[in-house]
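2024-03-11 09:14:02 DEBUG pipeline.ingest accepted 1 chain
2024-03-11 09:14:02 DEBUG pipeline.ingest length=173
2024-03-11 09:14:03 DEBUG pipeline.predict start
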Amino acid sequence: MKTRSHEKRPLVASSRISIHQNLSIRHRTRSKRFYFDVAPGSVCLSGTDTGGAYCLVELSLAPGMAVPRHTHTREDEVYFVLAGELKVTVGETNFVLRPGDTLFAPRDIPHQLRNSGNSTNHYLLIFSPSGFEEFVMATAVPAPDNAIAPTEPPAVAVQNVRELVTEYGILFG
């Protein structure tokens, strides 16, 4: 076992890791595309794939488009920007993320995001533990594989959002 240089006791793997030892390797080709409100994207890995540890979602927003202020009461959220720019406000602190930037947003802190750049962005979201992907899929509208990020809310409204938010531990505002 590894030990830290300044400590004599061994590093101990979390119990979560031992739970996941029975998971098998998952490989997914490009996932089916959906409109998640104003962002086309896909669920790359679900809780089923990760033993409930996390889910991975990829999304794109057109310039100026935003996801309203909301709070996750069950999941922590990580942002990783692949292309473009993403302004994330966590609590009252603003972060402008660019390609290669990462941000961790803990649960129970209100946050919102907006494409503050002048081109469509592309980013990954990790929610831990998993569960948020179920909300996303319960409210999603199918999109073509070549779906582009809309510059205004889609003509087809995302389904059931207001009815389902409390069931999934999400608060708006």
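2024-03-11 09:14:41 DEBUG pipeline.report The mean pLDDT is 83.
2024-03-11 09:14:41 DEBUG pipeline.predict end
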